[in-house]
């Protein structure tokens, strides 16, 4: 089955961890992930700056490794990210901000990517939200 | 056949960015001409009240964006009757042409759409 996975929750929310475990299980079960789309506070899970104590789960780090190892299409909503201070080098330069906290394998793009993923997938699975 | 998408908006307009961000999904999808619907549920029904005074909380008014939905081709707009009742708003004027749905119609609506996003 083809899944599109949307994450709306911040990294410390349980649904963010569940999203990652679901994504890992989907691939392990032979399914396909057409795209990960991080929206709302989910954009923080793509940020590269969180520093976790060594004995705690580093969710952002795990996401990054997972996306890179699996070569996934991983999109962070640009409007949601800008609003929350998650910027790649290009946006930091455009808005004259001193910090860059988003790198490959993540890509900033628009909500059209969520709609496209929804069209390409058999199922859209959302994590987070009220 | 494109997949249809129901966006369920459950947050009050000034309770954080959720109302705006749910609306942005609908407007973006409308621009791509996709079969979309929007349902206002729980505190999301407060978005439909015409007496918004967002400047009192230094916010931008969402009403104009909401009213742009039909122009973006999103004409399937629903509100949960129970949510209105619970808030004493059942006969209150609304700022959008929304169709009121009772519990069983709500279930049927969610069933009818291929995908659902709740914000």
From TrEMBL, chain A:
Superkingdom of the organism of origin: Bacteria
EC primary class: transferase
Keyword Magnesium: no
Designated name of the protein: Sulfurtransferase complex subunit TusD
Subcellular location field: Cytoplasm
Keyword terms, alphabetized: Cytoplasm, Transferase
Organism encoding this protein: Pseudomonas xionganensis
GO biological process, one term: tRNA wobble position uridine thiolation
GO molecular function, one term: sulfurtransferase activity
Primary site of residence: cytoplasm
Family: Belongs to the DsrE/TusD family.
One GO CC term, this protein: sulfurtransferase complex
Keyword Transferase in record: yes
Gene: tusD
EC number: 2.8.1.-
TrEMBL record, chain B:
Enzyme class: transferase
SUPFAM superfamilies: DsrEFH-like (SSF75169)
Protein known as: Sulfurtransferase complex subunit TusC
E.C. no: 2.8.1.-
UniProt entry keywords in alphabetical sequence: Transferase
Organism listed in the record: Pseudomonas xionganensis
InterPro entries associated with the record: DsrEFH-like, Sulphur_relay_DsrE/F-like, Sulphur_relay_TusC/DsrF
Similarity-based family: Belongs to the DsrF/TusC family.
MF term (GO), any: transferase activity
Source organism, top-level taxon: Bacteria
């Amino acid at each position: 089955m083809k899944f599109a996975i949307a994450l709306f929750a911040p990294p410390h929310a349980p649904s963010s961890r569940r999203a990652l475990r679901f994504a890992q299980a989907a691939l392990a079960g032979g399914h396909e992930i057409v795209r990960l789309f991080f929206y709302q506070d989910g954009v923080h899970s793509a940020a590269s700056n969180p520093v976790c104590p060594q004995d705690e789960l580093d969710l952002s780090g795990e996401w990054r490794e997972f996306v890179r190892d699996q070569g996934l299409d991983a999109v962070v909503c640009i409007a949601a990210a800008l609003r929350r201070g998650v910027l790649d080098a290009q946006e930091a330069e455009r808005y004259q901000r001193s910090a860059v906290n988003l790198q490959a394998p993540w890509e900033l793009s628009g909500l059209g990517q969520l709609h496209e993923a929804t069209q390409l997938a058999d199922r859209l699975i959302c994590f987070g939200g009220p | 056949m494109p997949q249809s998408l129901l966006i369920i908006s459950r947050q009050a307009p000034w309770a954080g960015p959720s109302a705006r961000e749910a609306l942005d999904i609908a407007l973006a999808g409308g621009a791509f001409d996709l079969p979309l619907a929007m349902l206002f549920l729980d505190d999301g029904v407060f978005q439909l009240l015409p007496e918004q005074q967002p400047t009192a909380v230094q916010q931008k008014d969402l009403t104009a964006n909401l009213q742009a939905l039909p122009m973006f081709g999103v004409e399937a707009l629903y509100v949960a009757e129970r949510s209105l009742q619970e808030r004493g708003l059942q006969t209150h004027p609304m700022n959008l042409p929304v169709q009121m749905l009772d519990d069983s119609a709500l279930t049927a609506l969610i069933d009818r759409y291929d995908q659902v996003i709740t914000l």
